[in-house]
Amino acid sequence: MFDILSIIPGRKKQTSGGWTSFNAICCSHRGHRPDDRFRGGIKFDGQTNWVYHCFNCSYSCNFTLGRSISEKTKQFLLWSGVDIEQIQLWSLESLRNKDFLDFTYTKKVRDTISFKSRELPEGELLDSNNPNHSVFVEYLRNRKIDEALLPFIVTPNDKGRHSNRIVIPYTYKGKTVGHTSRFLDNRIPKYINYQEAGYVFGYDLQKPEWQACIVVEGIFDAMSVHGCALTHNTISTEQAQLLAQLNKKIIVVPDRDATGLEICDKALEFGYSVSLPDWDSSVKDVNDAVVKYGRLPTLLSILENATMSKIKIEMQRRKIAKGL
User: Fold this and answer.
1) Starting at the edge strand that comes first in sequence, how are the strands of the sheet with 273-275 ordered?
2) Distances in Å between the alpha carbon of 169 and those of 30, 149, 182, 214, 266?
3) For strand 273-275 and strand 249-252, is the pairing parallel, antiparallel, or unpaired?
4) Is there a contact between 221 and 286 (Cβ–Cβ < 8 Å)?
5) Distance between CA 285 and CA 287 in Å, rounded?
6) CA dihedral 51, 52, 53, 54 (to 10 degrees)
7) Reduced to 3 states, what is the DSSP secondary structure of residue 178?
8) Rounded distance, CA 164 to CA 175, Å?
9) At what angle do helices 71-79 and 84-96 cross, to 10 degrees?
10) CA torsion, points 19, 22, 27, 32, in degrees to nearest 10?
């Protein structure tokens, strides 16, 4: 692949933080004063992957071997004097490395990812035949969650902050590694989570024969379609490593609010598909869709609308944002 530092014109210097600094190329192209204080910087992650950041106008981009060259990186290379035909050739060469890198990367993370074992809180195993559990069973059924999906723990007899909750276990390769509590009263917060950084809920729900994994933000969204939940509105590098172990097509379905839609850009950075079905404006997330349309129609709409096209994603994202 190309040597990015040989492309950058002018003098360069190395910083103690690992950056190679030079006069930023982007500033004058973006309407700012030309940089003459070495505010542009490139930092390598390994031998080929790198990030660029301008500490003057805040322009940033990156390159990862195995992925196509992004629009922002393409623009940076054009500003650096590289012609478009050469950039396209480099992008193609990068993609040719994808299969080999996927294999070695998946093997590496399979050998290194682990989470500590944790005990679940005390309580009773959910039993649909137990009248004391009826409120918990009703809650799950109203949200179209199969009460037999996981070994849910409930606390019908507890007092204080631990009362009236459903405990949802977090497992990784059959080992309990954390949990979340969903309280069924009006207290805040509604959820209390205990999980390690990098964990993805629903990993153990994925079956070997499935070709795709649906990734969502919330735990109930994941349970309603047997997908995986990030438990927040972004994707960390550690979570991407865990998802890579599944060796499946990843389809990210954002929550339909301002913060939820921000995940689209991050999903594309990791090479994932994004699905934004044309659901009713009252539907705010995947679980809402399952409640309104049913599980199978929701799954079909997610699969049919999965795309990696930035144009299609942006058009649908703007359409949804207008209705918020």
Assistant:
1) 228-229, 212-216, 249-252, 273-275, 306-307
2) 49, 11, 11, 19, 27
3) parallel
4) yes
5) 6
6) 180
7) strand
8) 25
9) 140
10) 110
- Report the DSSP pairing between strands 13-14 and 49-54: unpaired
From the CA atom positions of the chain, what is the Rg in Å?
A: 23
pLDDT in tens, 14-33: 988 789 999 999 999 999 99
Residues counted in the chain: 324
Reply yes or no on domain 117-195 having CATH 3.40.50.300.
Answer: no
Burial of 58-82, coded b for 16+ CB within 10 Å and e otherwise, reads ebebbbbbbbbbbeebbbbbebeeb
Looking up tokens 């035909």 gives: 85
Q: Where are the domains of the chain?
A: 4-96, 109-115+198-324, 117-195
pTM of the full structure: 0.67
Q: Are 215 and 202 in contact (CB under 8 A)?
A: no
* 67-110 per-position pLDDT tens digit: 889 899 999 999 999 999 999 888 888 877 765 555 455 555 55
For helices 295-304 and 286-293, angle between their N-to-C axes, nearest 10 degrees: 130
Between CA 268 and CA 50, with CA 266 as vertex, the angle to 5 degrees is: 85
Rounded to 10 degrees, what is the CA torsion of 169, 172, 174, 180?
Answer: 0
- pLDDT, tens digit, 9 for 90 and up, residues 172-226: 999 999 999 999 987 788 988 898 989 999 999 999 899 899 999 999 999 999 9
Residue 168's beta-bridge partner residues?
180
Do 240 and 272 touch, CB atoms closer than 8 A?
no
For domain 109-115+198-324, which architecture applies? 3-Layer(aba) Sandwich (3.40)
- Judging by DSSP bridges, how do beta strands 124-125 and 153-154 pair with one another? antiparallel
Is residue 40 within 8 Å of 21, Cβ to Cβ? Answer: yes
Evaluate whether 270 touches 262 at the Cβ level (below 8 Å).
no
